[in-house]
């Protein structure tokens, strides 16, 4: 705290004050956007390198603010997490992704990102079950992406909830692997279906021997534990070649497709695989 000109104490500088106000205003707009269903989903393909086929698409939330335009998902998701809106946002995303996926080719799965906070309250499994019933999506076609941060709070409760989801036939992905507080012990407690190697390793794959060693080790771990390994953020053909050489079987990134609308991804899925 510091004294301002009138001898009062302020806890924030004027700049911090203004940015806190802007955040609160954005939060109010986000609340409205969620209520009105004005959050869109973009879908990004995950491609099997052996066949060139799209095996799955990841749903990514999009919010275009009426004044400020597109807001980065990292920003509005964290805003939703801070304000408790994450439950409404998470439900909206899940419901829409499941509904959209019923219109995609039947052999394609849809991956939905979950915030660790959606595990709090213990009602996630019931919510997912209800949304699957409501939309008619086969549970085997749903994949849920969780991050390492998930496991920090209540380890037992989290693995219990993950097991309940998995018992329904839903696949569980460990997202952004390698950048959080990972513990290899988690793999002993829970068998993730897929591990997603974070983009930061892919970014440096051409120049960093340690990035290549880490990716190779994760591929080996995945093979040994029966987990699929996906590399994300693949932008260049040279990165793809190195990843394939390291044994990565599934890739995601701008090289294949940016995240696109549900209609556009349906059109992509209808095309034959590239030779
Ligand atoms: P994420 O789950 O790691 O998603 C992958 C991000 O990488 C997406 O960013 C995607 O557009 C971007 N990306 C994919 N391929 C490439 C590439 O080749 N190059 C580059 N530069 N970027 C690539 P996006 O859509 O901005 O989302 C950012 C993050 O926001 C996501 O990271 C996820 O953590 C979060 N997020 C997005 N949608 C949701 C959601 O519905 N729920 C939750 N809880 N989080 C979400
Ligand atoms: Ca993800
Ligand atoms: Ca990721
Ligand atoms: Ca990420």
UniProtKB/TrEMBL annotation:
Entire protein: shown range: 393 to 667 of 672
Query: Can you name this protein?
Result: EAL domain-containing protein
Q: Where's the EAL domain?
A: 23-273
- TM segments? none
What domain of life is recorded for the organism? Bacteria
């Amino acid at each position: 705290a510091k004294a301002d000109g009138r001898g009062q104490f302020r806890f924030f500088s004027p700049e911090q004050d203004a940015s806190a106000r802007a955040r609160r205003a954005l939060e109010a707009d986000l609340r409205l956007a969620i209520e009105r269903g004005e959050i869109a989903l973009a879908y990004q393909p995950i491609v099997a390198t052996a066949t060139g086929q799209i095996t799955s698409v990841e749903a990514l939330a999009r919010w275009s603010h009426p004044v400020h335009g597109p807001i980065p998902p990292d920003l509005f998701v964290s805003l939703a997490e801070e304000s408790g809106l994450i439950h409404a946002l998470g439900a909206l995303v899940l419901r829409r992704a499941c509904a959209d996926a019923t219109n995609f080719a039947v052999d394609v799965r849809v991956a939905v990102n979950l915030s660790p906070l959606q595990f709090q309250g213990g009602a996630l499994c019931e919510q997912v079950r209800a949304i699957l019933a409501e939309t008619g999506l086969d549970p085997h076609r749903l994949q849920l992406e969780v991050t390492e941060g998930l496991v920090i709070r209540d380890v037992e409760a989290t693995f219990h909830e993950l097991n309940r989801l998995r018992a329904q036939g839903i696949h569980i992905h460990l997202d952004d692997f390698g950048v959080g507080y990972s513990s290899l012990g988690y793999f002993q407690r829970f068998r993730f279906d897929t591990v997603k190697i974070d983009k930061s390793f892919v970014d440096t794959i051409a120049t960093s021997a340690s990035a290549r060693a880490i990716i190779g080790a994760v591929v080996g771990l995945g093979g040994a534990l029966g987990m699929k390994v996906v590399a994300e953020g693949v932008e260049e053909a040279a990165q793809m070649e190195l990843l394939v050489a390291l044994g990565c079987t599934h890739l995601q990134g701008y090289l294949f497709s940016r995240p696109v609308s549900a209609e556009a991804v349906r059109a992509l899925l209808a095309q034959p695989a590239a030779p």
